[in-house]
């Protein structure tokens, strides 16, 4: 079990206050890491860190701002002296304010350029900048693990039928930005793994499946019907994968995309 230990390692999680970000932080802390919870919501970060126990750090950060990331890096290095693990978790997944209009607004034909550009800025440029700022520390000391959170929708196209309700009405379309940006994250993972391999910085992607989070019953059932394990993921289902990719248990693994999706992409 020593292979899975993260004792005295410093691990940064971006988008730390989101549904999965909180789980990533908890898993890394339980494995022994000093967790840096990074999110635009600094107050929520402080509350999250307080729940993790001692020896952790909250930082308010904008992943699209080099200056913000540089300031966070100096704070982290000032406290811990090093950076060992980076989980690029921050991302935008389209939400439409009015559910009654979502079916029309989310259509590709109507999809706003503003939403497309914002998703690229956070989901792709944010991963690039965080890797550049924090990953360079790892490259300089020739040790580290970067985990980019991708998605099954970065591997296969969305099935638009699962967004149809019991009456067969299309309540929503999975819009183009999320699948396309998550595909880009997987491509970036391969690039960076190759680029920093000689520096002993491992770079892998984790592609989660859909997570249960108060969705409509019809959607959860539609999703389960397409999944061999017959359910959506629980938020804690990815804890083991995060610790595995962060630790020496995956010491000979880089440039890979670990798919944890209940079998969604298998059929």
Give a written overview of the molecule.
- The protein is built from 8 helices and 7 strands.
- With 267 residues, the chain is α/β, with parallel strands linked by helices.
- The protein has a single domain, classed as 3-Layer(aba) Sandwich (Rossmann fold).
- Helix 2 links the parallel strand 2 (34-39) and strand 3 (57-60).
- This is Short-chain dehydrogenase/reductase SDR.
- It comes from Russula earlei.
Structural key phrases:
267 residues; alpha/beta; Rossmann fold; seven-stranded parallel sheet
Topology of helices and strands:
Blueprint: E1 10-14, H1 19-30, E2 34-39, H2 42-52, E3 57-60, H3 66-80, E4 85-88, H4 99-105, H5 113-141, E5 144-149, H6 177-196, E6 201-208, H7 217-225, H8 239-246, E7 257-260
Parallel strand pairs: 1-2, 1-4, 2-3, 4-5, 5-6, 6-7
Helix pairs in contact: 1-8, 3-5, 5-6
- The count of helical stretches stands at 8
**Which class of secondary structure composition applies to the elements?**
alpha/beta
The sequence of SSEs as H and E is EHEHEHEHHEHEHHE
Query: CATH-wise, what's the superfamily?
Result: NAD(P)-binding Rossmann-like Domain
- Whole-number radius of gyration? 18 Å
What is the strand content?
5-15%
Total number of distinct structural domains: 1
Low-confidence regions: none
Would you state the CATH class? Answer: Alpha Beta
Tell me the quaternary state. single chain
Order of strands, widest sheet: 3-2-1-4-5-6-7
Q: Distance between the terminal alpha carbons, to the nearest Å?
A: 33 Å
Give the overall shape: globular
In the CATH hierarchy, the architecture is 3-Layer(aba) Sandwich
Beta strand count: 7
Give helix % range.
40-55%
Mean pLDDT over the full residue set: 96
**What's the main sheet like?**
7 strands, parallel
At the third CATH level, what is the topology name?
Rossmann fold
